[in-house]
Amino acid sequence: MSLSIPKMLAGAGIALAMMVGPAAAEFPDKEVTITVGFGPGGGVDTITRAASDTLSAALGQPIVVENQPGAGGGLALTALKAKPADGYNLAAAISTTVSFDPHSANVSYNIDDFEYIGAFGVFPEAIVALPSRGWNDFSDVIAAAKEAPDGLNYASTTSLARVVMKSISEKEGVVIKPVPTKGGAEAVAEVLGGHVDFAYSSGTYYAQAQAGELEVLAGLGKDPVPGFEDAPTLESLGYDISSVNMVIYLAPAGIPAAAKAKLVSAFEEAAKSKAVLDVLAKRNMGGFTLTGAAFEEQIRAQSDQFKAAME
After folding, report:
1. Model-level pTM?
2. In what order do the strands lie in the sheet with 198-201?
3. In a 10 Å sphere around its CB, with 0-12 CB exposed, 13-18 middle and 19+ buried, how is residue 274 labelled?
4. pLDDT tens digits for 120-138?
5. Angle at Cα 91 formed by Cα 191 and Cα 309, nearest 5°?
6. Is 176 helix (H, G, I), strand (E, B) or coil?
7. Which uninterrupted H or E stretch holds 258?
């Protein structure tokens, strides 16, 4: 018995659907994981967790925040590079992790391995020490290093910190040794506990400095640290060094354009949220944000500058 035309077409449609398979789910249809490249309690971790509720609401899916500290955020970026480029895996680091470290350290990633989603705030990077040291600014640190038989040591969180201090120590003819830490919170704890002479901190020191528990000896930016304008910058002390560092969010290169667009939009919403703005204000990081193409353009410009400086 022959089949009618409508039945034949229906059967063909079913067969075609079986061949093609179910329609692809719209991004995102499950949780998104952000791996923070620093330890709990530091600036990157705190800002990421503050942003998570707004990101979750904007994406309609849970945000899972986990920590993978080490190498100034480099371990998290190394791991991110190997993860699926589907939009469900992000990493939080600092801008110099991707703009500076590939030019100065033996890392397994470079600037082309990632998609650039968003950046929050500018770290008020500074050199800090206990007030009991009696140092007024960084020139006193150099004087102390010249008098110390074995030099001084400092808590370090990034390779940029180590390159900066090595450059200064060679210029001044002193010994200043790094003590690597897993993030800003640990670096501040090392100073407060008297385990190191000073710290190169990205901003976690701010509350303790406000309370008088730490002394800001020099800022790393082009301008003095807001709230501590009496402290010089390294540039004003005669060192040709400055840093503008942000909290950044990356995905593996090659994620679908639609997924990237949704992630960028979600981070734009998070940048305006009270939770994020409150944390940035508390850490003296301002309200500066960048997303998408503008963010990538700035990171690449910084990378070019660092490459030229290292050469």
Report:
1. 0.75
2. 176-180, 152-156, 198-201, 126-129, 215-219
3. exposed
4. 988 889 999 999 999 999 9
5. 65
6. strand
7. helix 257-271
